[in-house]
Specification:
It is a single chain. The protein has helices at residues 2-24, 38-48, 61-76, 138-148, 157-177, 197-204, 241-251, 279-283, 312-329, and strands spanning 84-92, 107-116, 127-133, 183-189, 213-219, 229-233, 255-258, 289-293. The chain is an alpha/beta fold. The protein has one domain: 3-Layer(aba) Sandwich (Aminopeptidase). Strands 1-2-4-3-5-8-6-7 form an 8-stranded mixed sheet, sandwiched between helices. Helix 7 links the parallel strand 6 and strand 7. Helix 1 (2-24) packs parallel to helix 3, helix 2 packs across helix 5 and helix 5 (157-177) packs across helix 9. The structure holds zinc ion.
Length: 342
């Protein structure tokens, strides 16, 4: 009897979500400019962090909708520039587990990948990867709901609709200008909140030769620039990397905490920050990485992580800094990986 009830529940919920899903196959894109504008960033975050997507937890309808939006944007924007768009399906657990077994991987999510070929006959065979996670914290939201009660939606605007929107805007800029010498690979990962699982899947099943990656840039929580303080991790993961980056850091009016593994903040929550987002799986493969982040705040993994608290001037400023770094590292000499220290 229990089985039958479960079965019925399952079919009802499936048909419900597939009905809603079909209606969402017609996701519409906003008109966007080829430049990185605040209006475009707001439109992307507005959609991704809307109640309709219910926080984009892996395996939910909101995850499907976010994936469709990203895929459509990668395919349709700045045509006719050549690009390759790929979707990797992968499986993650329904909630965060520390000791993951293969049978726990029951929920489907995605990595969405757009590749823009470089315009240099030799350098086009090397890559700069620009990524971020598009999922929101399923497990955390469920845990907090149990603790706090209530049905509030965790829209995860800073974490990480902000980084997702920036990856999209950078893609659009390069797709429209096609000025990159090395090939650029834009990846939006699912399953980050469940243990960096999208990037783990990617480095185990790469779409490019990982030995030819010059640099991986990760954008995770870029929306809360406060007192102009920006954390940039991994700056010693290449030989001479820090010195090359300093040229770019010195050109901005932001106050940059450039660190290797742990930022210089007193706050213990920043301990080993560099190990806590998707770039870390690339780092473990011997690839130089940097990680952009505007800091932990009271709304982190809370229902109050909403779009109205984001500093869009700040996101644009960081996006411009990332842009200048992409321009240099998609054309300069090859960086040599080195292990980071504290
Ligand atoms: Zn995040």
């Amino acid at each position: 009897m229990k089985l039958l009830i479960l079965f019925l529940l399952f079919t009802v919920s499936c048909s419900e979500s597939s009905q809603r899903y079909i209606s969402n196959n017609s996701i519409k894109l906003f008109d966007t400019s080829s430049e990185i504008t605040i209006t475009d960033l707001k439109n992307h975050v507005g959609f991704l962090a809307s109640d309709e997507l219910e926080g984009r937890a892996s395996g939910t309808l909101g995850d499907e909708m976010a994936k469709d939006y990203i895929k459509k944007f990668f395919k349709d924007t700045s045509l006719p520039t050549e690009r390759k768009v790929e979707i990797q399906e992968h499986y993650v657990p329904a909630e965060r587990k520390w000791d993951l077994k293969p049978e726990d991987m029951t929920v489907k999510t995605y990595n969405i990948i757009a590749t823009l070929p470089g315009n240099d006959p030799i350098l086009k065979d090397e890559y700069v990867v620009i990524g971020g996670h598009y999922d929101g914290g399923a497990a955390t939201a469920a845990d907090l709901k149990k603790m706090l009660g209530g049905d509030k939606i965790y829209n995860n605007a800073d974490d990480n609709a902000s980084g997702t929107a920036t990856v999209l805007e950078l893609f659009e800029k390069y797709a429209s200008s096609n000025t990159n010498k090395r090939t650029l690979v834009f990846i939006l990962f699912g399953g980050e909140e469940l243990g960096l699982l999208g990037s783990k899947y990617y480095v185990e099943n790469p779409t490019i030769d990982l030995d030819k990656v010059q640099l991986m840039i990760n954008l995770d929580m870029m929306g809360r620039l406060t007192d102009e303080l920006l954390y940039v991790g991994g700056v010693t993961s290449g030989v001479g990397f820090k010195e090359q980056l300093d040229v770019h850091f010195n050109k901005t009016d932001m106050n940059i905490d450039a660190y290797s593994n742990t930022p210089h903040a007193e706050d213990r929550r920043y301990n080993r920050l560099f190990q806590r987002s998707d770039h870390y799986n690339f780092y473990k493969k011997g690839i130089p990485c940097i990680f952009f982040f505007t800091g932990i705040h009271d709304d982190y993994h809370m229902p109050s992580d909403e779009i109205d608290k984001l500093n869009f001037d700040g996101i644009q400023k960081i996006a411009n800094l990332v842009d200048s770094i992409v321009v240099e590292f998609s054309s300069n000499n090859r960086l040599e990986f080195q292990e980071i220290t504290e």
